[in-house]
Design a protein that fits this description.
eight-stranded antiparallel β-sheet; alpha+beta; 4 helices
Length: 162
């Protein structure tokens, strides 16, 4: 299944994809910084993880590096973690030198079969205007799709169909 992404509600973006992989494996790809660094971000991007404290109240500092050399530093505060079902976090960041964007994300991992997982990312912005600016300036919908496609390729390399 290709990933689905769309604007929902007044101030949300939702990205979803199904994986032919156990929920625990998909969750681990988000919970382990060594795995995250191999797939996180849109096509052509690389990610440097500066720190990663995977616990409620813990922080994740990273820089995504665009294919054109632009850096996108982000600071993430984990607000809720329920293995292997849910990761929620508040993210601040954006293009280096530009106005900061901020949003709350909730990532759910739904077991939909013995070896099948539906992953849903719900990004909630303070307003529809902030959501629309993020989509316009950062192509968040397409970036979300590409990020989950990269996760699928990573899981396939690990020996499961995604």
């Amino acid at each position: 299944m290709m990933s689905l992404a769309e604007i929902q509600g007044e101030s949300e973006i939702v990205v979803m994809r199904e994986f032919d992989a156990p929920r625990e494996m998909v969750f681990a790809a988000w919970a382990d910084p060594k795995q995250l660094a191999q797939w996180f971000g849109p096509e052509g991007f690389t990610t440097t993880i500066e720190s990663f404290d995977f616990r409620e109240g813990g922080e994740w500092a990273m820089v995504m590096h665009g294919p054109d050399g632009t850096n996108y530093p982000s600071s993430i505060l984990f607000t809720e973690i329920t293995p292997p079902e849910l990761i929620a976090y508040f993210q601040r960041g954006g293009r280096a030198g530009a106005d900061e964007i901020a949003f709350q994300s909730t990532v759910t991992f739904e077991e939909i079969g013995r070896q099948k997982t539906r992953l849903t990312i719900r990004m909630e912005f303070a307003s529809g205007e902030e959501r629309d600016e993020t989509e316009r300036d950062y192509k968040a919908i397409e970036g979300g799709r590409q990020t989950l496609n990269r996760l699928a390729m990573f899981l396939t390399k690990r020996g499961v169909a995604a």
